[in-house]
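# step 3/5: fold
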Amino acid sequence: MNNTAVIKIKGLTKVYKKHKFFGVKKVVGVQELNLEIYENEIFGLLGLNGSGKTTTIKLILGLLHPDSGEIYFNNFKLPDWKLNKHIGYLPELVSFNKKFSAYELLKFYGDLSGGVTVDRIIEVISFVGLQDSMHRKVGEYSKGMLQRLGIAQAILHNPSILIFDEPTSGLDPLGIKEIRDFIVKLKSQGKTIFFSSHLISELEKVCDRVAIIHKGKIARVVENVEWQKETLEDIFVNCVSS
């Protein structure tokens, strides 16, 4: 890991407006968020449900527009569709057409991206361990297999940064370990991985740094060496309880 920031978030604020019968209720998604994600690091975003994790990810991807603040990717301002080729995304809830096989789906996504060869499709399928079932219909896949296919889709176009939203959500212990191993392997290939989670033990195992987000604000950014002395759980509890 080096200290070259590939993503810079400056003063990011997003407020949701919910229209009620007697007026408008405002709910803060994130407020004055500042973060830097370094090249070739595994960066975790840790927070309770509703703390702003998914909002942050959607703002980076351009799926939501901020009320204020700026996001940069390698010093280019986001959102910018021309930069999408450098980013891979795995949503929390993976959904695919159940009538297609993994190979057919990845071929479709590859054609949309352009320049994705059949060899690359096979390489990605093998990386996530679906080579023996790549011609089976996705409707027959388990939750763990669907999550692996989601990772295959995210890395298919060989992006430099990967953004995963709760990648181990709903998985059994074996599935969680598989996703963890994929994340570590992707870092070894030079990728930058940014993922959200509320599973403290998983973040401790793989992350170089973790940002604790609470009520839409960054409470603290924690280096790996810090939770070698004090558990990440203790650090997290102190942040969200204060």
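# step 4/5: annotate
The longest helix spans residues 173-188.
# step 5/5: archive (pending)
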